[in-house]
Design a protein that fits this description.
Oligomer: single chain
Order of helices and strands: HHH
Length: 88
Amino acid sequence: MIAKEPEIKKDAMYQLLRDGKIKEFNHYKNKGKTCDLTHCDFRTIDLQGLDASSIHDAKISGAYFPNKFSSDEITMSLIRGTRLRSGM
């Protein structure tokens, strides 16, 4: 299977993330608005504060996570769909 290159889509919800409008994205997401983030390019985007219910099955590489997340916790989230908890 050939890996698809990340792309910059025109989806309005995705564009909120690209524009750094994380709170606005979370607001619309919590109101039920959906978007397909499959194959989207998130390089150089700061997603701090993003309400990500689960990253189950996400293909993440080159991502930086805060030190408070252990590698085991990130792995379990990816494999099992468990939530990443910051301990705040």
